[in-house]
Amino acid sequence: MESRYAEVAVPVNVHQTFTYRLPERMAERAMPGSRVLVPFGKQLITGYIIQIHQSLQELGQESEDFEIRDVEEIIDAEPLVTSELLELSKWIADYYYSPWGEVIKACLPAGINVEAETILSITHEGRAALAAAEGRVARTSKIQALSMIADQGMIALSALAKSLTKARASAIARELEKSGMVTLTREVQSPQVRTKRQQAVRLVLRDPCETGKPLSEPQRKIIGILSDSAEPVAYAALAEAADVSPAVIRTLEKRGYVEVFTRDVRRNPLSHLKNQDESDHADLNLTDQQQAALDQIAEKLDEKKYAAFLLHGVTGSGKTEVYLRAMRETLLKGRTALMLVPEISLTPMFARRLRAHFGDAVAILHSLLSEGERLD
User: Fold this and answer.
1) What is the C-alpha separation between 316 and 303, in angstroms, rounded?
2) Domain range holding 128?
3) Which of 110, 174, 267, 269 could lock onto 376 through a cystine, CB 3.0 to 4.6 A?
């Protein structure tokens, strides 16, 4: 089978993409938008497949007259970076003259990229060298490193770097590998962000284990709240709403009235905001100047042409309302809208306005969000 090749954007300050060979075991799984672990210099980094090439001829090469390194691992079963995001990130990279890989990385939640840890394992040659050095008063850094590896069987390079400097540990690892005293393998580490999980409670649609024993008043309150709710209720929220201890819920679970289970939940940075009534803003009549500005923006939206507009007006003159109406026009056309604010402290105010107009379609992103909130 002829080799296939992946064009990869890497998140480093270089204005080009790089070509890697796809091993046969990965060739069918590789797709544009998938994250991959690729060798870059002396390290492994997460890159993003931009394009798949079926042959060297597509690259303008007749043969491999230059070194092409292999992709180490494909991270995603399905591409994480959609075709729309690839197109948008490419436009941003060109418009702002930024490295494409860095733009893609900035588009994704922090903490989502995986890393590879280098693992050192001692060989028979390494154990022989360690035995030959036994009894020496002065022990070199290499022998000290071999001793640490031998004590544990294998050790991560990062752990070795805690006893030595990072640069020294890397240099010793290369020397030991070259002399055959250790083998180096790379293990893919899990991403830092984890799915948030929550205990929830729902009614059981079957006969309870006990039928003769009556329910207590706290237990009836729990049953009533769950009966009125169309969805399962969070465990802690249910206990608080009924003003009972968690033991009451557990007793109902033992008796077969309810089921306690664990579910994945979305982190919502807007949950603390009180919703405004959309009707407060829906009936506002635009002034002639506001309407004229909106008409010019809508015209370019209809033409699907890129254009920049500057709304000039004093505080309270209604610029934000024009922004919101323009966003509504955009969404009605099946497209998306982004509002930038100059200060994080303004986020709650604008978030309330946006939610009043657009409901749960609003997403917030700023530097004070946790990595989990960014991912969700």
Assistant:
1) 30
2) 116-188
3) 267
